[in-house]
Design a protein that fits this description.
The complex is a heterodimer of chains A (400) and B (168).
Chain A lengths: L6 H5 L5 H34 L15 H11 L10 H18 L17 H22 L3 H38 L9 H6 L6 H4 L1 H14 L11 H4 L9 H25 L14 H25 L5 H28 L4 H28 L15 H6 L2
Helix pairs in contact in A: 2-3, 2-11, 2-12, 3-11, 4-5, 4-11, 5-6, 6-9, 6-13, 9-11, 9-14, 11-12, 13-14
Chain B lengths: L2 H22 L3 H21 L3 H24 L15 H21 L16 H10 L2 H22 L7
Helix pairs in contact in B: 1-2, 2-3
The chains are: A mainly alpha (400), B mainly alpha (168).
């Protein structure tokens, strides 16, 4: 593996470490902002196409400046703090939401040599930092002194705790395989290093070995980021925007910055852990210039799927969401870890791991299908929202 | 004083102050939030000791899950309107227990043969693979026992949370 890029060599001038660190931080901030502006614009455009609309068109060519205009509006808006809100908790909550997402950026590899820092425990680090995000959400919910905000915050916390577990276990399956490969190569350690995990996928992306893991990871990412159909914490029709209902102006935009950066980082993580990150599929060697394109293309494809899912599904109910995580996803994630452990401990080849994971995925889908069919006939849980029946005028006239 | 020492004392100060805050804050939500700061300080000390694995596990388990569960339990009480009573009848016993713990810790700190910072260079940081090896080979029975204990606690919580009249 080539050495990590050193900025001072890159620029051809000597600079002290702290300047190097500062440049890296500024890079994260710039990327966060640009990424959020771009993603909001793209989401509106993509959703519009799904709904046979055209989306923003007025601001700039094909509406491309719409996000920039929105951002300017938000920055100049009045920043209101409710009189009864808890001052410290309300104002600090924003940072507790923003900073973990910012920190999550650090170990994500963009190419073989481009990352903020190469962390030996990068995989664990990402999940540890992600868990802190929820503290900010719950602070915002409680500090606002608003029932809807509190409900949203508690929903978000419940959701995040429930889905963190299957998501971490699903991704842990990949770490197990990577550790096995590394042991075969005579190396100990490094299986939690995101860059090493990508490096392991030069010939086979791990999605082929862990298809179930990938699906559970994607569902978990949707739930962690409060994306539809799992957006109960921020559902306008239920809790009027959830935990950030009392926030306005620049604080509100910080929440959105954190949310869309989180989305980007989730798909970057998925792309590095499951899709082979900067590797060209199936072993063709790509130059450094192509690596950034490949990473971003994989991440963009995943983001597109997430937008697609948003356009496709109605929102679930909070109890359905919790039941789905604890009763369906978690057992399957555990089964996968168990199966991986048994196969790898007895030295089974890779294709057995992939086949077992695929079989588990098929049984997961079959189980969901059977459950939904069974429930749809019963009276307890409808996955489709119950629609009020239209009363026709003749029925009204006849007094039915 | 080296930079590491300055950082250590800063972290220690934050930990002490927030730990005091946990015990003295009348508002139980403030106490829980300050508890996160204390646990974050512990994670930072682990980082200073170059055991990154423990630091991350500390954040993952305590910083995230446990504190959120505390917040859950407490935010559903009326913590906002009614400050909690800080001192009850058991105060002398609490003081006694705290003093005993403090005495034990001080005794341990004084009697331990600390490695001086000058000799520290020879010590290699413990790789997390070694921790995993030891947990799953030497200490596997305690590990399983702790796992069973946690499962029992979880089952108990589910049992308590389920309404009794839900028998149909």
């Amino acid at each position: 593996m080539p050495d990590a890029i050193v900025l001072s060599e890159f620029a051809g001038i000597g600079m002290p470490d702290w300047v190097d660190a500062l440049i890296r931080l500024v890079f994260i901030v710039a990327l966060m902002t640009l990424n959020t502006l771009a993603l909001i614009y793209l989401e509106r455009k993509v959703l519009a196409r799904f709904q046979a609309r055209v989306g923003p068109t007025r601001t700039g060519p094909v509406g491309i400046l719409q996000s920039a205009a929105d951002a300017l509006k938000l920055l100049t808006k009045e920043d209101v703090r409710p009189h009864s809100a808890d001052r410290w908790v309300f104002e600090l909550a924003v940072f507790f939401v923003f900073v973990p997402v910012f920190l999550m950026f650090i170990p994500i590899p963009f190419t073989e040599t481009w990352f903020i820092r190469d962390l030996e425990l990068g995989f664990l680090y990402v999940f540890a930092v992600l868990g802190l995000n929820i503290v900010g959400v719950i602070m915002a919910g409680w500090g606002s002194d608003n029932k809807y905000a509190l409900l949203g915050g508690i929903r978000a916390a419940a959701q995040a705790i429930s889905y963190e577990l299957p998501m971490l276990l699903a991704a842990a399956g990949v770490v197990m395989i990577a550790a096995g490969h590394l042991l075969d190569a005579g190396l100990v350690g490094g299986a939690l290093n995101l860059n090493t995990i990508v490096d392991q996928q030069r010939t086979t992306p791990y999605i082929l070995l862990q298809p179930l893991g990938f699906v559970i990871f994607m569902i978990g990412a949707l739930a962690e980021m409060h994306r539809p159909p799992f957006d109960m914490p921020v559902a306008e029709s239920e809790v009027v925007g959830g935990y950030f209902v009392e926030y306005s102006g620049i604080r509100w935009s910080m929440f959105f910055l954190a949310e869309y950066t989180g989305l980007f980082l989730m798909v970057m993580l998925g792309s590095t852990v499951f899709l082979g990150g900067w590797n060209f599929p199936f072993g063709a060697d790509a130059g450094l210039g192509w690596q950034i394109v490949l990473t971003l293309a994989k991440a963009s494809a995943m983001i597109f799927v997430l937008f697609w899912l948003r356009a496709m599904f109605p929102r679930l109910r909070i109890d359905q969401l919790m039941a789905f995580s604890w009763k369906v996803l978690l057992p399957f994630a555990l089964l996968q870890v168990l199966a991986n452990g048994i196969i790898l401990a007895y030295g089974g080849p890779d294709w057995v791991v992939g086949l077992v994971s695929l079989a588990l995925l098929v049984s997961l889908v079959a189980l969901i299908y059977v459950l939904v069919r069974a429930k749809a006939g019963g009276d307890s849980i409808h996955l489709e929202p119950a629609r009020p029946r239209l009363v026709t005028s003749t029925e009204v006239a006849s007094g039915d | 004083m080296s930079a590491t020492e300055i950082i250590f004392y800063a972290i220690a100060a934050v930990m002490l102050l927030s730990a005091l805050g946990v015990t003295l804050a009348g508002n139980i939500v403030y106490a829980a939030l300050l508890f996160i700061a204390t646990l974050g300080g512990v994670a930072a000390v682990y980082l200073l000791l170059t055991v990154e694995f423990l630091a991350l596990v500390q954040l993952l388990i305590y910083g995230g899950a446990v504190v959120i569960l505390i917040l859950f339990a407490l935010m559903l009480t009326r913590a906002r309107e009614r400050p909690q009573a800080l001192f009850g009848k058991s105060r002398p016993f609490g003081v006694l227990a705290a003093m005993g713990l403090l005495a034990g810790l001080i005794a341990a700190a004084v009697t331990t043969d600390w490695v001086s910072p000058a000799d520290r260079d020879g010590i290699e940081p413990v790789p997390f693979e070694a921790i995993g090896d030891v947990i799953f080979t030497v200490w596997v029975v305690p590990f399983i026992v702790v796992g069973i204990l946690l499962s029992i606690a979880l089952d108990g919580a589910i049992l308590l949370a389920t309404p009794e009249d839900e028998e149909d």
